[in-house]
Amino acid sequence: MPAQPPTILILPLGRLETLVLRVVAGYIQGILKVPVDIGETVEVPQETYIPDRHQYDAGLLIRFLREFAPSYRCVLGITSVDITLPIFTHVFGEAELGGHAALVSTYRLGKDTHGRRVTDAVFYERVAKVALHEIGHVFSLYHCGDGKCVMRFSAKLDGLDEIPLYFCDRCYFLLRRMIFRNRAGEDT
Amino acid sequence: MANARILVVDDELIVRESLMGWLRKAGHIVDCAQGGLEALGKIRETEYDLVFLDIKMPDMSGIEVLEKICECSPETMVIMITAYGSVETAVEAMKLGASDYLMKPFEPEHLLVLVDKLLRQKRIIEENILLKEQVAARRVRYQDLVGASPCMQRLFELIEEVAAVDSPVLIRGETGTGKELVAKAIHAKSRRRYGPFVAINCGAFPENLLESELFGFEAGAFTGAVKTRKGRIEMAEGGTLFLDEVGEIPLKMQIDMLRVLEEKRFQRLGGRDFISVDFRCVAATHGNLEEEIRKGNFRKDLYFRLNVIEIEVPPLRERKEDIGLLAEYFLSRFRRETNKSVMAITKDAIEFLESYDWPGNVRELENAIERAVVLAKDKVLTRKDFAFLTRQPDVLDEGDKTLEAVEKHHIARVLEECGWNVSKAARILGINRTTLHNKIKKYNLKDRQQ
Predict the structure, then answer these.
(1) Which pTM does this prediction carry?
(2) What CATH number corresponds to the domain at position B358?
(3) Chain A residue with minimal CA distance to B28?
(4) On chain A, which terminus has fewer CB atoms closer than 10 Å, C or N?
(5) Residue ranges of the domains in chain A?
(6) Is A134 an annotated catalytic residue?
(7) Residue B296 and residue B328 in one domain
(8) d(Cα B43, Cα B65) in Å, to the nearest integer?
């Protein structure tokens, strides 16, 4: 009997359009070929708010997500609030390397570099790219030097638009291997 | 450049965690320290490529720590972390030797660019050190292959083709044929030419030393491992790893080598982190690997992984037409290196060199020319200057083993060695000059130099 792939849970943090969640779930299922569930909405914890920055602490949000649904291999939080790590001006997403939780913020993904709204297609694609990138980190992938890989690091919108919505052969190989490896590091 | 060893020094947990998290996702190996004293302790134990150093810390100021780092680990790059308002201190730090500074909070993209830039600089410095070491050892002869013979021309064409792809190469050939020069030529012609060329002779180390030399080790991995050290595999990042005498890799280590070649990642001895590497593997052997596979001394899977492209370097006896060219080339080189005014080599001497079998191949020819140049008394090298190559062309026929034939051959050989100084030859042979003259006449021996 073929091994059962682990399931990923998408958790809406705060108010979000259902369509975003469904589109991201579709992309993850299609590309990673693993089942994806969408959970009930959870409020963004107020203790993660940084008042002087008007942003939410992505590190604390990851700690918050870590406690959710331990039966899932990965919990991906999606939020519309602006997130950052205290040393950075902003981040699009955050994840625990080789851990359990990942996070995507849609806050900065809906506009172009001049502040104009982008089309829904571009917006959904950006959210999916950040989601796949952060999930890659949960499955122990590092940033990739290949310009044709979603694991290439980009903290700018034009850079994000340039990278594709798929993994390079090497990252995909490693990712699939890690997906089918349980938390104890054994192949399933 | 991934897999750098980085230390984050900051008294704020949130800064340490954020920076470490980001750097680890970029594939680096990251340690942290809460203050200056802890940081200096770690720097004494481990060789770091990069240090992020907070300017304000309770136990020691960042500037004091920087000064100590510059003293004990000058090759380490230091980035000062500063808050808004302390830019002047950061500028002062740069005057004292810091590589750059970051003001919190910074753009993630800025961090990426800065880390990449400094690690590239570090890589160039390391390559320069490596090159200087190679120059000191007089081994820098990139694309120094010499040969006009058809077999060498074919070899050059093959190198061109092989250099264009990134597949592993197995170079075969007798000892002294120039396998390492072929490997260097492949590297110098490939897209990896700006990366390092790292060579290791697998037969030159005992098993445990070879393992630490190839894979590197973490501090404390074994007795005497006081400081973390990169292995040759890690040093070959972005370039070419040349495994000379690959057949000498112990069977037990062959499986580790196979894994590195397949997965392009490995662990240092005593290390837990996987280190990704990107290098091209070029291996060489003078032995018969197929025979070693048959005997169970070499893994078949490793053989197939190494032998994607095979290059055979011909022995010198199969390209004797190149001997004149090589002799001229080495003469010109040793003239420069020894500062002697030996300007040429006679045709007769070349013919003599061509008649020799060269079991040690090009390396033996190189040594012969060097010896002749060093000992030469004239401006031109003659056949006499190569008398030490005792295997003359007038060797005994297989069937001619009479006492007379042996005597003729022996006298001719001694005369050649003495440069046809009859008195000296007579002394060595234990006969008087008259007897020797008679024997020269009897056997019709002639000095070919006259």
Answers:
(1) 0.54
(2) 1.10.8.60
(3) A142
(4) N
(5) 8-179
(6) yes
(7) no
(8) 11
